[in-house]
Structures are given as C-alpha cells and as structure tokens.
Design brief:
Blueprint lengths: L1 H14 L17 E7 L25 H11 L3 E6 L9 H9 L8 H4 L10 E5 L2 H12 L7 H26 L4 E5 L15 H19 L7 E3 L22 H14 L20
Parallel strand pairs: 1-2, 1-3, 3-4, 4-5
Length: 285
C-alpha cells in the first residue's frame, strides 16, 4: 500500500507539470513612518533662533534643531509625527530642579518626571540634549556656598548623580519606546562658550570641571545602546558665530549644526563612532 501511495503522489506531481519550490518572502520596504520625540529644554524650542517655538507645539517653521530634523525626515519621504517635550529651563532630575529653585532659577520641569514618562510609545526616534542648565545650576550652587568646606567633593557628588540619572533616563525611554533609536547630543565645554567669556579663570575652571564631568555620564549611556553625538570635541561648537547674543543658546547657524549632527546619527543604518574619551577641548583652562 505504501508503494502505491508514493506512486500516486509522484504521478499527480507529474500531471501538474513542474513542481515550484517555495520562494523566500520579499523583504518589506523600509517604513515610511517616523514618530519623533524630543527631550530637551530651551534648545528643543529653538530659543536664540530667529523663530522660537512655543513649548509642546510642532511649530513647522521653527528654526531649532528639533524642527529642522522633523523637516528633513519629511523631505526624505517619511510621514512624520513630532512630539516636542522640551521646556525652557528644564534640567535632568528633580534633585537639580529643587536645588535650582532654591537659587530662584524658576525651573518648571525636569526630564525624568515631566518628559520621559510622556514619550510616545510608538516613537521611532528620540533625541535628548541634557546638561547645559544642570551645569549652570551646579555652578551657581557652588558660588552660593552649597559646597561647604569641600566644594570639589560636593561638585563631584553632583556629577556622579547626574551620570546615574542619565542612565535612569535612558532606561525609562527604552522601556517606554522600545523600538526607538535614541540619539543623545553631549555637551561642549561650556567654559569655552561666549557666555563664559567674562568669567574669572577660576570660574571657568570650575565650569569646565562640571561640563567635562557631566559629559562622562552622558557618554556612558552608549553602553545602554544610545547613540552619543560628540559635541565636546567638535571644533565647530566653539565658534562664536553659531551663538545668539546671549552667548549660550545657538542661533540659526548653530541649530543647523546641531541638526546636522543629530540627523546624521538618526538612521538605523548610520555609521556612528563613540565620543572621544579625551581631546584638547576638555582642558581649555
């Protein structure tokens, strides 16, 4: 009986002509959907540019780097949804927020409690720019005597806490939006920016210590799968022509540079390099 069944199967196949082997399914085309969530502070709203955006708006004509990235994604053929969570003055953690408000800095929100928990769960891209307001808050606190008799140790404690908080932030974003590519812009040496030009040498050295220390915490997030864009060691970040009149916020040209750097790292196929562990810009003073 077995031989008869086998004969019938072979005969049936022959009667139907050539047997067509299974084919490999076609690889689907790259998604045309981009859901972009931005975590940041005044930078996310383009403060210092010629077209500043109101927080929590898409602001299609804004001149900040977030709005420019959204336009570039759209120009590439993607259907873009932008969620801009940035609010001017924001800092990374509730601890830094509380410290800043003791110094009358009027910090309304922090990234950990007020931005990360609201990242869209379907985000495909999340950008983060943290540390500028934090560094200035820590510097102001030192000047106000928060460091007590050992300001160096106190500053190092704040720097270490910032690093731990950055790791927590990235984990929160990954849990919230597991399919997102996370692109983080690290800090330039703030002591080398125009707003610090009038500082004393000692003040510049302290600000440099803080900025370089915070950057170490930012760079460490690469081990969590974040893509860290190196601004500390990029000479273009120290040219005065990319800053607005306050010497701290970028102008249109500065935000375009931010967009160039972040957008280049945004595609999943982008070739990226780790931020440098040392360069001359880390020791300007």
């Amino acid at each position: 009986m077995k031989n008869i069944c086998l004969f019938l199967v072979i005969a049936a196949a022959a009667a139907c002509g050539n047997v067509i082997a299974p084919t490999t399914p076609e690889v689907p085309a790259a998604s045309t959907i981009a859901v972009y969530s931005a975590i940041g502070a005044s930078d996310a709203n383009g403060v210092g540019s010629s077209s500043v955006c109101i927080p929590y708006t898409t602001c299609p004509d804004g001149k900040g780097y977030v709005q420019e990235i959204a336009r570039r994604l759209q120009a590439s053929g993607k259907q873009v949804t932008l969620q801009n969570l940035g609010v001017p003055g924001a800092v990374l953690s509730p601890g830094t927020q509380a410290m800043g408000n003791l110094l009358n800095r009027n910090i309304a929100i922090n990234f950990m409690q007020d931005e990360a928990p609201f990242v869209r769960t379907d985000s495909t891209l999340v950008t983060i720019f943290a540390g500028g307001n934090d560094a200035n808050t820590i510097g102001s606190a030192l000047k106000a005597g928060f460091g007590g008799s050992d300001p160096t140790s106190w500053a190092n404690q704040q720097i270490a806490q910032f690093g731990a908080d950055m790791a927590t932030l990235v984990n929160a974003v990954k849990a919230r939006a597991p399919k997102a590519r996370i692109v983080i812009l690290n800090l330039p040496n703030l002591a080398g920016l125009p707003y610090a030009a009038g500082y004393t040498t000692t003040e510049k050295q302290v600000l440099q210590q803080i900025a370089v220390g915070l950057n170490a915490g930012i760079n460490a997030t690469a081990s969590q799968g974040a893509i860290v864009v190196d601004m500390m060691c990029d000479s273009r970040l120290y040219q005065s022509y990319i800053f607005s009149s306050d010497g701290f916020h970028p102008n249109d040209a500065g935000y375009m540079l931010f967009a160039d750097l972040a957008y280049a790292a945004a595609p999943t196929t982008a070739l990226t390099t780790a931020p440098k562990s040392s360069c001359s810009y880390m020791s300007l003073y």
